[in-house]
Amino acid sequence: xxxxxxxxxxxxxGAAGLLTAPGPFLAFDQFFRPAAAQAATEQKILTxxxxxxxxxxxxxxxxxxxxxxxxxxxxxxxxxxxxCGKGAxxxxxxxxxxxxxxxxxxxxxxxxxxxxxxxxRISWAEALDTxxxxxxxxxxxxxxxxxxxxxxxxxxFLSRLINALGIVNxxxxxxxxxxxxxxxxxxxxxxxQYTNDFDNSKYILxxxxxxxxxxKIVYANGIVKARAxxxxxxxxxxxxxxxxxxxxxFFNIRPGTDLAVxxxxxxxxxxxxxxxxxxxxxxxxxxxxxxxxxxxxxxxTPQWAAExxxxxxxxxxxxxxxxxxxxxxxxxxxxxxxxxxxxNSTQLVHAISILNILAGTIDRPGGRYFARGIPLPGADAIWxxxxxxxxxxxRIDGRNLLPLVxxxxxxxxxxxxxxxxxxxxxxIKAAFWNNxxxxxxxxxxxxxxxxxxxxxxxxxxxxxxxxxSMSDIVLPSVIxxxxxxxxxxxxxxxxxxxxARQPLASPLFETRSIAYVALELGKRLAPEYFKKPDGxxxxxxxxxxxxxxxxxxxxxxxxxxAKGKVERPAPFVPRTSFPTVGGxxxxxILVPQFAEKGAEPLPKWHPKRDQPSAEYPYYYLTFIPxxxxxxxxxxxxxxxxxxxxxxxxxxPALAAKLGIKEGQMVRVRSRVGQVELPAHLSETIRPDCVxxxxxxxxxxxxxxxxxxxxxxxxxxxxDASAEDFVAAGNYGGASCIMDAVVNIEPL
Length: 747
Hints:
- By secondary structure, this protein is an alpha/beta fold.
- Helix content is 30%, strand content 15%.
- The protein is built from 26 helices and 25 strands.
- The strands form six sheets. A seven-stranded mixed sheet has the order 5-4-16-15-14-6-7, covered by helices on one side. Strands 20-24-21-23-22-25 form a six-stranded mixed β-barrel. A four-stranded parallel sheet has the order 11-10-9-12, with helices on both faces.
- Helix 5 (156-164) packs parallel to helix 20 and helix 17 (416-423) crosses helix 18.
- The two termini are 41 Å apart.
């Protein structure tokens, strides 16, 4: 990609006809604000990606104030000199002609995905004053429970604003991602571990885990090195992917039955005393609960699991024995790929944690270990606030019915619409969305109905998403290539490492950061929480300087930025104490605290929520293509060209049975909805499954590349209520995004 300021204007000016004029979406070049004048010499700037959480290091080539090229950095512990396609195409996010450019307000009172919002441009002062006035009015009249924040914490100042206002209803996508694994590991091993020492593993057991196919470079490199070092990789999944190609053995498992295979493997390992005796007897609670544990798993035989899973009993037993005997061994769990797929994923993640404990590789070479990180003090530690008000009020998502989910203080996408429409209709008066779109929810049409009941909605984003199209006030956001920060390594961190994220360009147009918005709203709504002891307002740059200084990374951020990174090499010393909830300092196989909170102390077999029937005979699967990140990259010009839309992926055998040919339009129907899209025939999927890629089907017409292309996979995925989770024993809040079953017919 070759961009200068001159051809940037030429390139984007050509898109003007696609945009609304003379309204707020004027031609890109009319409001382009270049960085300060620079000599026409080429610069190399080091920063860190933020497309996904490993934050691979980037070397950017910047000429005449414009980003020309992005590549990986040799020696970086995460990218190891590489970027995936998403990271390498980052400049297309920066220079997307569809970027939100300045604050806007809605003029059309009718709301819906298919309505023209009638946006008009306003000033930042008007936008912030309007938000503050409306929020204050709702809080005074209806209490803090009337406000909904749909956002990750994102920045210390945003967390402070939420706490200062006593906001009880903050939700995020974590129940669709790693909420369950977070909960399980707090109690079984002492905390969520993103660090998998594949490099030194000799046996890698993958239940649905698909990070190679998702282009998670730090994990993909680890698997490659493990194979080069002689490791064996075994994968269970209903689809054959790039990750499957890395496996020595692949088993085309029936969807939703990974739990049965994992339970049977635990049975084989325990009943034959194949576990790592030194680790299990010294560092776990197995000796204390041995009788109960042995008795519980005795029922889950390989023969029983084989009937459910389509994996032969002999293979289940053999692989369990190999896993236990080939040390060190590891069974990773990571985010959406299995932690939130099914209603029984809570039990599956518990079983996987037990397998790792039995292998004796918790915080050991070749296993799952705790990142050796660099603690960064937060704003509350640097500038302690007055006592926050108690968070009282009703939880719109029903999280209060799930005590273990309540403890970790995350929200739940999958139950939000039910809460707003059935549990407490009309309770939410105002909503603030930050870099989330309704496309990411199960059954987004249900959420559209819910959001129509909200009187005042604000969205901060960098593109005009579906959520933006339903908003009353829109705030334009900077992206990661325009921001600064400290990135502490937590995926491959056998010793502490931190890298600097620094801006490659000044913020374009009138874009601002979420820190700015939180601070400005804080000044208007809770000023006592946003002042330093000297009476001056908090400042994001000063916070960054203090964090760097107190973490020992430099005198200030400028000093750290000049270094680029800080590494503190040290020998890896395995833990002998594990900070599990309950204070035993041991890994827990049986978790007594779960029983105390009405959950299962040991994982039991539960089926997935929906099963095939005469009306809906096929399993429904969704996936995130490695080319894209969930629903945020489809408007990127390069990534859109590589994969502009989705299809219904089916096995040729099923296609022949139904009379479906390649590219033919088909209708896929579930108990909550239907979609029509072309068929794609592939041997990579089981004949009893239908698969559709996530991230497509944006309804916003303001997205000139992604708008109205493809279908929303979520239109076929039923959402749920918190009561559904309680009834199913889903105490970890897994989102059930692959529990649907469907029918498919040619058109």
